[in-house]
Design brief:
The complex is a heterodimer of chains A (340) and B (562).
Chain A (H helix, E strand, L loop, with lengths): L16 H23 L1 H24 L4 H6 L2 H12 L7 H15 L12 H12 L16 H10 L16 H10 L4 H5 L12 H17 L6 H20 L7 H5 L4 H8 L10 H21 L6 H18 L11
Helix pairs in contact in A: 1-2, 1-4, 1-10, 2-4, 2-5, 4-5, 4-6, 5-6, 6-15, 10-13, 11-13, 11-14, 14-15
Chain B lengths: L37 H4 L4 E2 L5 E5 L9 E2 L6 E2 L4 E4 L8 E2 L4 E10 L7 E9 L19 H10 L12 H4 L8 E6 L8 H8 L1 H15 L3 E7 L3 H14 L4 E6 L8 H9 L14 E5 H13 L5 E7 L7 E6 L4 H7 L7 E6 L6 E2 L13 E6 L17 H5 L6 H9 L3 H6 L10 H5 L6 H55 L7 H21 L10 H24 L1
Parallel strand pairs in B: 1-14, 9-10, 9-12, 10-11, 13-17
Antiparallel strand pairs in B: 2-8, 3-5, 4-7, 5-6, 7-8, 13-14, 15-16, 15-17
The chains are: A mainly alpha (340), B alpha/beta (562).
Chain lengths: 340, 562
């Protein structure tokens, strides 16, 4: 009898990139739901616009590059990048903000570098940073947590750029806790006084602590499902908390507490969903510890001394730059070889 | 004596051996795979029968192929020597059954390449007449060197799958601390060692005692997996019957690839066999349980290696099981003895699903290293989906029992950067397939590594050939020059002899010669054109000196760094 042959191992595959991406998208759900609950319809508009733009841009780029369109689209990586970008955007931003961000993320940061597996920078964060630098005003359009405009008002705002009755935008937007901390400290106020204000919740920014908690839950679930590995999120949160703790102990009036940093802004989303993007991260076990730690420390530095509302995106991109070097210097000791 | 805790991932060659092996170590990664062994262990070991024709490759082991001693048409008896080993690393081949040698020719053999190799083909006569057997030996009163010779004569090679001639592995060494008998069958589906240990535990123990006598190890451990209760029970009974044999039975976790020699040694002792080294380098020798049983037969009953136990299993055969198969039996006959193929059979593997290789045809014979024949449907082992780009997720690194960075190796192997691949430990890869199994992008990683290894070997061979050719060419030029010189010298001598001139003793002649030489030198000097460093201006000279000083300083600094 004749048989077909191919190379070992022969066991059926039990995992796929598409399955991993699906699990990541699923794990985003609780945090996204909480985000939507607090910040309203704008979150959904952002997700919808960024997600669709990302998938369409990916399809067009794949066609131009003469690659298999359907199988690649089905891996879900473009949709995931669009969603991650959307979750970083202010919910009341005009419609073209997610469009431009998504286009930059997919077309330039991802496909022009060769597509999935070849991009040196996290596409979603590259897109986000481009928006942050180019459209600083639009990137501040956050509603107050738990007090957002209704569907019709949000729709008008997102697609026409103004509110009904010609109300000023200030009527619905509010500084995020992170911005507030930066501004007030800049004005010489003390943190202890700020903490009494309505922007603060139990440990972090009001509302934000719940968003972070649910993203943390999704992240832990991904760990359990072995979609991600513990090293990057743990070391990033440890780095952020450690440096925050040191400075907080040194001067609690000027430097926010570690729990504020861990449960405000994009800390948990960044630690479990963004920094863990394997393509642009370090890939050796020890390298990943340094990579995460670096993101944590840089996030704190940018939040504390930088000029932007949150530091996660810049920290991730900076550590993306360092990943090849980290990989080079943190190789594993091969079985049976002496320490190198 | 208990060993101190060995930190994970650190080399621990200096760790003392544990006395009782109650503390086990672990290696990085590995996989817990579904066993699929119950199906082949349902029935006791059966004899597969004598096939009409036996096909015996001259090379069934690692090393040089054996040299054929018989001619076509010759009648042979079971146990007759058919081929003699050539050189140190080689093994003889015996006739497993009586019959007539009908051909010595290239036939398809079980090898991943699918290339044919020289085989002795015997048409069996069905009489099963046995030739003059070797005399049984009382190993206790026999010199280890003689026992080793008997093991060589019996054609025993490592039956775990590698097929390294056992005699060579047993080369008398005085520094063996630990003898490891490997009963950890790591791959799914394969159960031949488990069947052997369950049903013929006494043979295994008897073989181990001979190995102990030869090697005189300080300790001996028999390792089985913790999911083999029946084998454990049988071995414990056999050990009790054998009295105090100094053999410790250890159950190791059934994590693939614990059955690999290096991984098993790590699990038992915490020591790591050096990269590119042998277990003997750290005072350990590892032998498979099947090899131990074969040694028992060779020494205690004088029977050479004529058959082995083969697991025939998978949903592609009607009645899976462990079969005692004569070496050289075509796989088609073995499958027929296991009830034949089912209708949905699609693939035929030799070995297990992780490291085994698929063969085109079932005409290839069972050889000494064939531990498993796996016939499966397309549902059980479907074609892998097309590979996608590597996303550097690192699952392969987590799974790699050799602590490699498989995805880095993949980049280097794929881009043909073989120096970097070697630097990243390409040759420490044991091709266990864990990385490819966990890869979410379905990249056939092992195939890339095999390709890179083969390419490197080819390059090295070509380089060696080129070196030899260059050496020959240089030697030839030298020889030609020497011959020319010698001829000239001879001619000059003859000329001198003819003209009757002396050898320059004449002072007048010497003076003339010297004067002529002076003239010639003067003439040469006159023709000498000055190089561009002569006639330099002071400015240029200073510049050159500065450059020289800087270069000297630079060299000095570099030397300091070194």
């Amino acid at each position: 009898m004749e048989f077909r042959t191919w190379s070992s191992p022969h066991l059926p595959v039990n995992d796929s990139v598409a399955a991993m991406m699906r699990l990541v998208l699923l794990a985003l759900l609780p945090g996204t739901a909480c985000f939507f609950w607090l910040f309203g319809w704008g979150v959904l508009f952002n997700l919808l616009i960024a997600g669709v733009t990302a998938v369409v841009a990916e399809a067009i780029m794949l066609m131009l590059r003469k690659r298999a369109v359907t199988t690649t689209l089905l891996d879900g990586s473009a949709l995931l990048a669009g969603c991650l970008l959307a979750l970083a955007l202010p919910p009341l931003a005009p419609w073209w903000i997610p469009v431009i961000g998504s286009l930059f993320a997919i077309v330039i940061a991802k496909q022009l570098y060769g597509g999935l597996g070849y991009n040196p920078f996290n596409p979603a964060m590259a897109g986000y940073v481009v928006l942050l630098i180019s459209f600083p005003l639009e990137m501040t359009l956050w509603p107050a947590a738990g007090n957002h405009p209704d569907l019709a008002a949000t729709f008008t705002l997102v697609f026409s750029g103004s509110l009904q009755n010609d109300l000023p935008l200030d009527a619905v937007t509010m500084a995020t806790p992170m911005d507030a901390v930066r501004m007030q400290l800049g004005l010489g106020e003390l943190l202890t006084g700020l903490k009494e204000g309505p922007l603060f919740g139990l440990v972090g920014g009001a509302g934000w602590e719940w968003v972070n908690l649910w993203f943390l839950a999704g992240g832990l679930w991904m760990l359990k499902m072995r979609v991600i590995q513990w090293r990057i999120p743990v070391s990033m949160l440890a780095g952020l908390a450690l440096v925050a703790l040191v400075f907080h102990l040194y001067d609690p009036d000027t430097y926010a507490s570690p729990q504020f940093h861990l449960f405000s802004g994009a800390a948990m989303l960044g630690a479990f969903f963004i920094a863990t993007d394997p393509v642009s991260a370090s890939t050796t076990p020890v390298g990943r510890l340094w990579y995460g730690f670096g993101i944590g420390v840089l996030t704190w530095v940018i939040r504390t001394w930088g000029g932007y509302p949150d530091g996660v995106a810049f920290a991730v991109l900076l550590m993306n730059l360092a990943a090849p070097t980290l990989d080079f210097y943190t190789r594993t000791r091969v079985f049976g070889q002496q320490d190198r | 004596m208990r060993s101190s805790k060995v930190p994970e991932g650190k080399p621990s060659q200096a760790a003392p051996l544990p006395g009782d092996f109650t503390r086990l170590y672990r290696f990085n990664g590995g996989l817990r795979l579904a066993e699929h062994r119950a199906v082949s262990l349902e029935h006791p070991i059966r004899f597969a029968g004598v096939p009409k024709q036996l096909v015996l490759p001259l090379q069934q082991h690692i090393g040089a192929p054996a040299e054929c001693l018989v001619r076509s048409g010759e009648h042979v008896l079971a146990g007759d020597l058919l081929a003699d080993p050539v050189g140190r690393v080689s093994a003889p081949v015996h006739a497993p059954a009586s019959g007539t040698v009908v051909a010595i020719e290239a036939r398809p053999v079980p090898h991943p390449s699918g290339l044919p190799a020289t085989c002795i083909v015997i048409d069996t006569d069905g009489e099963n007449a046995t030739g003059p057997a070797l005399a049984p030996v009382d190993y206790r009163n026999t010199d280890p060197v003689e026992l080793c010779e008997r093991i060589r004569q019996a054609g025993i090679v490592g039956l775990g799958g590698a097929g390294f001639p056992t005699r060579v592995k047993l080369n008398r060494r005085h520094d063996i601390e630990l003898l490891v008998i490997n009963g950890a069958e790591c791959e799914p589906w394969i159960s031949c060692d488990q069947g052997l240990m369950t049903e013929r535990a006494a043979d295994v123990i008897a073989g181990i005692r001979i190995l102990q006598h030869i090697l005189q190890p300080q300790q001996c451990v028999l390792a089985i997996e913790d999911n083999m209760p029946s084998a454990g029970h049988a071995l414990r009974t056999a050990l009790a019957d054998a009295g105090d044999a100094g053999i410790t039975l250890v159950e190791v976790p059934a994590v693939y690839p614990t059955g690999g020699e290096r991984q098993l040694i790590r699990v038992l002792t915490g020591r790591e066999v050096p990269s590119q080294g042998l277990p003997a380098d750290i005072g350990i020798i590892c032998q498979n349980v099947g090899t131990a049983a074969a040694i028992h037969h060779a020494v205690n009953t004088g029977q050479p290696l004529l058959s082995r136990i083969v697991t025939v299993t998978g949903d592609g055969v009607h009645s899976p099981g462990n079969l005692e198969v004569l070496i050289g039996t075509p796989i088609s006959d073995v499958v027929a003895a296991a009830g034949g193929y089912t209708d949905n059979v699609e693939r035929l593997l030799i070995g297990g699903p992780m490291m085994g290789y698929a063969v085109h045809s079932d005409a290839v014979p069972v050889i000494k290293t064939t531990n498993c024949i796996l016939a499966v449907s397309a549902q059980t082992m479907p074609l892998p989906p097309p590979a996608q780009p590597c996303i550097r997720c690192g699952k392969c690194t987590e799974a790699c029992p050799a602590d490699l960075l498989p995805q880095q190796l993949y980049w280097y192997a794929r881009s043909g950067n073989y120096d970097a691949a070697q630097d990243f430990g390409l040759f420490d890869c044991i091709e266990c397939g864990c990385c490819a199994y966990v890869c979410p992008s379905h990249i056939p990683l092992v195939q890339y590594y095999r390709h890179a290894k083969t390419a490197i070997w080819t390059q090295e061979k070509q380089k060696q050939a080129a070196d030899i050719a260059r050496g020959r060419h240089e030697a030839r030029l030298e020889r030609l020059a020497r011959i020319k010189q010698e001829r000239q010298a001879r001619l000059a001598k003859r000329k001198r002899a003819v003209t009757g001139e002396g050898d320059g003793d004449d002072p007048r002649k010497a003076a003339i010669q010297a004067a002529l030489e002076r003239v010639r030198q003067k003439k040469a000097q006159a023709e000498y054109t000055p190089a561009n460093i002569d006639n330099l201006t002071d400015e240029q000279r200073r510049k050159i000196e500065a450059v020289d000083r800087r270069r000297d300083a630079d060299n000095g600094r570099k030397a300091g760094e070194d």
